[in-house]
Specification:
single chain, 255 residues, mainly alpha, 12 helices, globular
């Protein structure tokens, strides 16, 4: 029952999927980060499903690509894009660490947030336009694995402040078991990706590791640790890099 409650809380927090009400108490939140990748599994499944649907109804390539780009925003309610925008504002301010943390909490949208979001969406559109079906299948798995890494970071990285969602999840989670479960989830998901196409999966793995190390160093240096907004920034950057690296690997194969 506690595992089910953790799954419900994960979907209620990180998606727009309607969920029954569950009390946010310690017992129910212990494995929320383990359930978080299931949101990515849903998103990956919807992505592959839409790929087949678009072929069946003869949808134009431009509209199909646009749906691929906005589908994660619709499913998640834009929570990760919001974190990416807040982090872009904070990083673009070139202020001291304390001021950057204040900017993360500011509800106003700054110029760097808008510029960053537009740039990210255009870049994603260009990448998804070029992805072949085989590439899409591999990248779809990435929605799951990126959330595995995000959840692992919550259990392993220092927290920038004592309040907020990340701090709450860190205090309530069974960190040791969370790491073990997430590691098993990662191995299984990447095993599937390598079974589909080893070269493309290797490129995606490289992108994830690079973005993960970047996330760790940037968050520690610029903010003193991670926050919910930084976690959103990581997911957006990681997923864009994964798709880009897979596309690049596909180009290399075709040379």
């Amino acid at each position: 029952m506690r595992i089910i409650s953790s799954i419900i809380i994960a979907f209620a927090m990180y998606s727009k999927v309607p969920m029954p009400k569950v009390e946010w108490k310690k017992e129910n939140m212990r494995y929320v980060m383990c359930a978080f990748p299931l949101v990515g599994a849903l998103l990956g499944g919807l992505t592959v499903g839409f790929r087949y649907l678009s072929d069946g109804i003869g949808l134009g390539h431009g509209i199909r690509t646009a749906v691929f780009v906005i589908l994660p925003i619709v499913v998640t309610g834009g929570i990760h894009l919001d974190g990416f925008m807040d982090t872009s504002d904070a990083l673009g301010s070139w202020q001291e660490k304390e001021k950057r943390l204040e900017i993360l909490k500011d509800s106003h949208v700054g110029a760097m947030a808008v510029i960053g979001a537009i740039t990210l969406c255009i870049l994603n559109f260009g990448i998804w336009w070029e992805l072949t079906d085989e590439m899409i299948y591999v990248v779809a798995i990435g929605f799951f694995t990126s959330r595995v890494l995000s959840g692992f970071a919550v259990a392993a990285f220092p927290c920038a402040k004592n309040s907020g969602l990340v701090a709450m999840f860190q205090s309530e989670a069974d960190k040791r078991m969370t790491k073990v479960i997430l590691l098993l989830e990662f191995i299984l998901a990447m095993g599937l990706a390598f079974w589909l196409n080893a070269f493309l999966a290797g490129a995606m793995l490289a992108a994830m590791l690079i973005s993960y190390v970047w996330y760790h160093r940037m968050s520690k240096k610029m903010f003193g640790g991670i926050t919910g907004d930084l976690a959103g920034w990581f997911l957006q950057v990681c997923e864009c890099m994964m798709a880009g690296f897979v596309l690049l690997a596909g180009y290399i194969v075709c040379l």
